[in-house]
Amino acid sequence: MPFILLLWLLLPWLLDLWLTVTVADAVGVSVWYFFLASAALGLVMLVWEWRRVQTYWRALRRLEGSPWQLLASARRGLAALLLILPGLGSDVLALLLLMFPGGRRVWARNTNRRHANEYVYAERQRAAGRRTAETAYQASPGVIEGEFRREE
Predict the structure, then answer these.
(1) Which phi and psi angles does 91 have, rounded to 5°?
(2) Mutual orientation of helices 2-27 and 88-99 as an angle, nearest 10°?
(3) Model's pTM, two decimal places?
(4) Cα angle 119-125-131, degrees, rounded to a multiple of 5
(5) For 59-117, how does the pLDDT look when each residue is reduced to its tens digit (9 = 90+)?
């Protein structure tokens, strides 16, 4: 039973290596060129995405970013890891992940729309003469409500 489980886990990887060797022979290029090129590209992408994840994480901690940016970066990081793995099949899967629609532009468009709606709501409240959170803060930025008693 453990042998069957091991074979089940290794079979896709072995088929991927066989496909890579077959394509490399058909093209007439050494297999190592395929492995080195995809691994180098994957490492560059992984370092780049790690820096972006750190930037997005800092922005989220300041409540300025969007979690969708972090998820899109995680998708690209997974594609980078798949590029590092040897084999043509994992490279094709990585390219499919990179081509998947719904990247930064779609999520940024939704995020910008949400912020625009909040801005329009605040403008309507101001036009109606109601106080918004922004105008309430501007009216009394240094005032702290409460009772004060000095104890010595």
Answers:
(1) -65, -40
(2) 80
(3) 0.57
(4) 110
(5) 888 877 777 778 888 888 899 999 898 888 888 888 888 887 655 555 555 555 555 55
